[in-house]
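Hi L.,

You mentioned the student needs an example of a multi-chain input paired with its predicted structure. This one should do, with 630 residues in total across all chains.
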Amino acid sequence: MNASSTSTAPAPAPLSDQIMIQMEHVHKWYGAFHVLKDINLTVLKGERIVICGPSGSGKSTAIRCINRLEEYQRGRIVVDGLVLTNDVKLIEQIRREVGMVFQHFNLFPHLTVLENCVLAPIWVRKLPRKEAEEFAMQYLERVKIPEQARKYPGQLSGGQQQRVAIARSLCMNPKIMLFDEPTSALDPEMIKEVLDTMVTLAEEGMTMICVTHEMGFAKTVAHRVIFMDGGEIIEENTPEAFFTNPQSDRTQLFLSQILHN
Amino acid sequence: MAKLHTPHPDLPPPANATGVPGWVRRNLLSSPLNITLTVLALYLLYVTLPPLLNWALFNATWTGETREACQTNGGACWVFIQVHFDQFMYGFYPEAQRWRVNSAALLLILGAAPLFAGRVPSKLKVRLGLGLLVIYPVIAFVLFKGGLFGLPAVDTRRWGGLLLTLVIAGAGMTAALPLGVLLALGRRSQMPAIQSLCVIFIELWRGVPLITVLFMSSVMLPLFLPEGMNFDKLLRALIGVALFQAAYMAEVVRGGLQAIPKGQFEAAAALGLGYWKIMALIVLPQALKLVIPGVVNTFIALFKDTSLVLIIGLFDLMNIVHNATTNPEWLGFSTEGYVFAAAVYWLFCFSMSRYSQNLEKRLHTGHKR
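Structure written out for the whole complex:
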């Protein structure tokens, strides 16, 4: 399936044909349990993908294979032209270009917000501290919490923590952002502020893969929606077609369950 | 049916819940059982405290040169301590050379003081701390041992008293913590060879009493070494103590490592940090903070366990006090001697405990209430 141009507002930037991520026939087992079954996915530069599906369907596992937080036993993944192998240096090189935001934020609680943001630029990108801090402040302003820079994560609300986590990833200037259920652990009042941040990021043309149940976000931002169940990609479509005319019974059932209220 | 909400004002707490009367009421007089226990405790204090104070303070003899000064009224004879004080501090270290020990102690105090002050920038603290851990032991060793820079050599057999206790404890602690951290990381390593090596090391050393380790180091090791090759006895004991305590420390640190959520590793890895940077910057700072109580517990046990070196004939504080009480000229003052030794051990251990509590408070970064 090709990337589409039928998505609703905000108008997606024209896509280049540069491939950022390519997953080919990826299989993964946890012991005897087959969690990923023949996953094939191509993501172009600037493309925004939303992956949804019931819990245990392998969606998180799939995106965690892209930056090698999970190993896979069969298949091939190419990220920004680099073929993922077991080589530790190569994996670290890929991780530098792939930002990740987690369901439970995973901020470093012993460091201040600013220190969380400058840690990787200083120790991985070897930026001078002063430069890294200026850079980090810019991103903290973009996620609208520069005034919290000197506080510790434990002193912030969940929504603020998740925005810091996004800023922390952006400080590495990644080419791709992976979001693993970024709003699932948040109170309803805080979901919007995080989604707004993600929409802004999308408008700037970031390549994004987002595992989420926020169907509103999928409708407005995604170029493509992927539905997974039982470790397989069941359906892959434009948001419009996905929501109005789902092809498989499994997708229809899933949509009716999450959209019923 | 909507009822209009008016905000409730903050009221002061009930009067008898705060202050000294509140505390007494809550902790001492809250129930008939507690009242009985309070009265009983007061009675026990009344019975035991006055005789103790009379012995230790009011009837005690504080000045004099010989045991004859102390024959009077059943109080403690602190003259015993006063006469032997230098021996208790330095052992058999030559009197003319004791300035070397004093200057090493002074250097340690001057070097460590800024670490405890609040206003010193943390960068300087890190450098000072590293200096104390790496450079200071070398300086202290050269000062104590001599034989360099025109300092007359002092054989380690002459080191003793509190000096020896502090040397063993200090060397044990500075070696055991880093070694323990490495062992703990090794035990959690994905590499089977490293993992089993660390497991074997830890279980072997932890399963043996320290006394056995010291005996082996002083009696058996020389039997296995080739003829003419001879390690210093103190050095052998130091290595034994350090490796023994490292095994304990490893398990304390591992407890902390296990408490760090997997998400912390993942978040750090996802940013492109390598194994050692993840450990040094993210995992260990949090894990070590969590296990401060356990680490200090091990340190305190280590400090007191140094007294076991008496069985291999080293004269640490405990042994030298014991030695003095068996001096025919001063027979009959063992109580004073052991009370003094206990007081010195307590002073050091209590300071460590207080410092660790202070450290925990300062490193707390959660919700500040």
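You could point out the following to them. DSSP finds nine helices and ten strands in chain A. The beta strands of chain A are 19-30, 33-44, 48-52, 74-79, 82-83, 98-101, 176-180, 207-211, 224-229, 232-237.

Best wishes,
N.
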